[in-house]
Specification:
7% of the residues lie in helices and 52% in strands. By secondary structure, it is mainly beta. The chain folds into 2 domains: 121 residues; 81 residues, Immunoglobulin-like, CATH 2.60.40.10. The two termini are 34 Å apart. The protein is built from 2 helices and 17 strands. The radius of gyration is 20 Å and the shape is flat.
């Protein structure tokens, strides 16, 4: 046992933490985006130490360039484990045009890698879109998730919605639901892994979305 501990102590200083937090892929979740709506984008990262802490993502828009930053802080000791955390971005107020997306992984305020996320074309806002009011257009992400669930595209009707979450047996789950800006956030971190159903009701209209908790 002493030999193992000594080996770990001599090995850890030579671990390159930059290789333990990297951006892997970019996925644009919003289909046919226009300048009326926020564009939801998800970045998958690679994390090689389970005790690192993932921070909220940040982004900047510089002309027709969008830079997504997935942030993380390290720990003095690397507890070996591999995971692929997801970071969601809500890109609002984008002008019509074609954008180049880049994703950066940042560990302890240092960029560890940069990847291309392709291009994003945002159409001009149309009157038809403004008249759409069906709650079918409400976006729920990320899915699957193990932590936060965001409910977006609410417009001005957030307070008029009735939102409930049920497990596969039909039992309602009582969870915190907070309004943050123009979207709602539901904390799923205390749920067991499995299939759940999110029910969104407005007046006589109802939609049910299947949620996977991993």
């Amino acid at each position: 046992m002493k030999r193992i501990l000594l080996a770990l102590l001599f090995t850890l200083p030579f671990i390159s933490y930059g290789q333990l937090w990297t951006a892997q892929s970019v996925n644009v979740l919003t289909t046919n985006p226009d300048s009326c709506t926020a564009v939801n984008v998800q970045v998958t990262a690679y994390m090689g130490c389970i005790n690192f802490t993932v921070l909220p993502g940040t982004f900047t828009v510089n002309g027709n360039n969008i830079i997504l930053q997935v942030n993380c802080t390290s720990s003095p000791i690397c507890a070996g484990a591999i995971s692929y955390p997801l970071t969601g971005f809500n890109l609002g107020n984008l002008s019509p045009g074609t954008y180049t997306i880049t994703a950066e992984a940042i560990l302890d305020r240092i960029v560890t890698n940069t990847i291309s996320g392709g291009t994003l074309t945002v159409a001009a806002c149309s009157t038809t879109h403004l008249l759409e009011s069906s709650i079918e257009n409400i976006e729920v992400y990320p899915n699957p998730t193990s932590d936060k669930l965001f409910i977006d595209e609410l417009g001005q009707r957030g307070a008029d919605l009735n939102i409930k979450l049920f497990d596969i047996a039909g039992k309602e789950q009582t969870l915190p639901l907070n309004m943050i800006g123009s979207r709602m956030q539901m904390d799923l971190s205390k749920l067991e892994s499995g299939v759940y159903f999110l029910q969104i009701t407005e007046g006589e209209e109802k939609v049910i979305k299947k949620i996977l908790v991993d």
